Amino acid sequence: MLSKDEVFEKLKEVLTTGFGLRREQLAPTARLVEDLDLDSLDSFDLMVRLEQETGEEIKEDELKSIQTIQDIVDVIHRKLESKESRQV
Amino acid sequence: MSAESGSRIVFPVAPRLAAQIPDRMRRRLSYGWRVFRTGMAFGVFGLGALVIGFVLIPVFYLLPGATREREIRGQMIVHLGFRTFVWVMESLGLIRVSRIGTDRLRRDRPYVVIANHPTLIDAVLLLACMPQADCVAKKAVWNNTFLRWAVRGAGYIPNDEGEALIEACGKRLREGRCLLLFPEGTRSPMGQLGRFRRGAARVALKSGCDVVPVVITCDPPTLMKGQKWHQVPDRTVYITLKVEEAIVSRDYVNRYESVATGARRMTASIRALYEENVGDARVDTAEVEGTKLIVE
Predict the structure, then answer these.
(1) What is the pLDDT of residues B98-143, one digit of tens each?
(2) How many CB pairs under 8 A join A and B?
(3) Cβ(B181)–Cβ(B112) under 8 Å?
(4) What is the ipTM of this complex?
């Protein structure tokens, strides 16, 4: 299973290739709307992309809790953990 | 007789009498006279909206044709109504409109017109130049007694959130229709630009249609967000509609980039264009032939 650092690196790749963001913008504390200027359509695209990458659905309440890059990393990591525990 | 030489409408007081009125009183009277004319213009707008919304559009909607044809007829009626309203406002001496390159708004293929949004009447001014244009109308318009039937009959697009709105806009373009959008989503802050949203660029990129930017300037500022209709400036408002060269959407599409990235790049270019032009397009009122401003 990927570590949090590896999830962070993967997320950086998605945000730079898919959303035109620069790597230096992508600090863990960067806020999606205020700092990275992601709008509602970008957020929708990002969640679809993350669901495709992880094979896990991101629920409405999880979406609402996401404010920063670190929040996304935490949600994805949690999903991967629960996916692995189901498979064991 | 005049408190406002050069404009077509003057304050109706005989010259000899006007000379006897103290300056302060004359300014107040002239301002009141301008507020009255503004009220008249809004009255004409409300009445026109009622006639168009309750009579003309429903009657023309009943004529044979597919929904698309009926909506386009409705948009033509709105266009003619707005042309008349702009003429009324100009005739009342409230505004003077300069149009630069507005023939570019009548192209033979679908495109997205975008504009900054300094005043309440920007959509009116632009639709008066475009016989066919779909636009996105905010919820307040759909709930407005005067306007709701007109926006329905003309097939305008409700201001829904997110992907549904992008899809509705894209559908109109695919049908060969033109679209008017304000990337700021609301009126601009005074003399500045608001945050540009990327929806317009997304629509253009997804549909492959070009974007035609219109720079609107308004001097002195009027009918801004939060202003009441009677908070009018003390002189004629000069509005310029300057149509820039089209932004070609295929320049922002490549196979290595997502639509989101392309939309970000295109919106940055659009923003740069507006930052460069918002100051430049202002009309020097001293150079407008046949007009001279007198402080009321």
Answers:
(1) 999 999 888 788 999 999 999 999 999 999 999 999 999 888 888 8
(2) 34
(3) yes
(4) 0.71
